[in-house]
## 1
Amino acid sequence: MKDTRTTNILLLIIVISLVFYLLQTLSFIFIPLVLAMFIALLFLPLMRWFNKKSIPKFVSIPVVVLIIAGVFRVGGVLIQLSSNEILEANGSFFEKAETKIVDLIILIENYFGVVRVEGDSLMNHYLQGNNLAGKIGPSLDFVGDVISMSLMTLFFAILLLAGSINVEKLLNSTIFKQKHASVKTFRKIEKDIITFVKVKFIISLFTGIGFGLACVFFDVSFPIFWGLLAFLLNFIQMIGSIVSIALLALFALVEIDVMSTLLFFVITITGVQVVLGSVLEPIFMGKTFSINVITILVMLMFWGFIWGIPGLILSIPITVIVKIILDQFPKYQVISSLMSGKDS
């Protein structure tokens, strides 16, 4: 009996390891599929409304696709505006930025005792071996990957909305074995994910607006770019807010000469993040986001390791779904309680 249990545990470890290996190896399929699932969940209430009004799917699905395309169009316009903002910057700004960066690097070198070859410039020393041609290839590959992944996500989303891939039936046949339990869990997942995405979008939007306005008020260049970056990074739980503050603070160091003004600027953008992300977001999330900090950090590291940046963005919604499913089984209540930080 003991040997059988040991064998089962070893087999379970092997299966879990194989699943994680496949998730990483076939990320080009799983990332668009998971993204499409969340997009489909957002539009399922609208699809049910269309169904109640007896509107056929060959009409309702193109309407949803047009809505998604409109969102991407707005995003494209914002990216274009931020790009034009950077391209239209005068040469004096970049000269000033280069001077500040050089001074900062020299200060760091002196602190750590780094010695360069006499007569060797900073650019040659730190960018030795780098050339523009070597960077164009990877950049084009990245753009190609983004386009192909976006098209695959749209394809999977259409299949999910059309009912070709029925997640509710999949839950019923694989996990719950009971229609009532699978329907109840699926509706709970749908409700919580919609709440999560709506709140995250609104909080990220106001964070981006706050960063942009702070840049305008303190006369920091590229407010649209920094607002857009803060909006996007805010979708990465915890880490994104820290990165956006750090990047903008370093950039402001170039333009703001008075240290007291720079300090007030950093306090302002930090205050925006704290008020929106640490105070208002948990209030609006409510029970939807009852996951403790340790679980969040572990999931961020885990999915970030497997799927990179998309994994960082998707880690928390995936964790929410896993927790909802575990809540339906009494024998897994201990794990669910540990994830939420509550006493079991």
## 2
Amino acid sequence: MKLVSIESIPGEEIVEVLGIVKGQIVQSKNIGRDFMAGMKTIVGGEITSYTDMISVARQMATKRMVDEANSLGADAIVGIRYGSSSVMNGAAEIIAYGTAVKLKK
């Protein structure tokens, strides 16, 4: 499965647009991670446990998007975008979305 953030794939011809596909996850923080993050805010710097958590959540959202595209018989997803939002205190949503397409063989 080809994944690109641009609207076309150089050297490939899109023959059919199958529709928008998405994958999302709501990831919560754990209390131990929150405590350590609170300590980190005192001295400053990157909170790597949150960076890692968001990275894993983004990978899971991407996989769910790809699974949806596969179920449609897609060869690629173009125009991929990511978004995030705070759903509630201590939880964030990550969404990946794009357009599933078939390519000329």
## 3
Amino acid sequence: MQAAYKQWTDFLIDLGIEKVPHTEKTYLGHLVNVYRLMESEGLTEELCRAGMFHSIYGTQKFQGFKLPVESRDQVRALIGERAEMLAYLNCAMQRETFDEAALGDGETYRFVDRLTGETVELSRVDFDDLCRVHLYDWMEQIPRSRYGWDYRRAAYRRMAERLGGKAVDLYDRVFAGEPKAS
């Protein structure tokens, strides 16, 4: 794992992201911390890789760095097919339709890919793993985010509840640190 981790961070450093600001850190610092948070919570290596690359193509909100989607094959070769797919979908999701899908309780989930305009359909397992990537990204950065503690708060709570256990515990721990209104 250590050799692979160095490959991933070297790839990111070669892109220059250690110079890109992100939530009072560097973009590289945020990505590494998402990986470490997911790892510390006992998530699979595949999900940790997806977490490290969760915004590599830019997201609906974060546009400080965007690797062109034409680079997907290169990223896929580096982190694995499923990890790259989850990272891409985290980047491409239209958040409003994703949040709506997270309300569901079926075997398939649909939301809009904002980059292509197409509807994405995922199995429950893949959707829940995408929720994990999305939730853990936000939990890592919320204390430093300019969007504030209330940004999509209900949607993130629903994601934590649908995942249960450690996800709810993490959500509660993070939000316990919310500054008190004066």
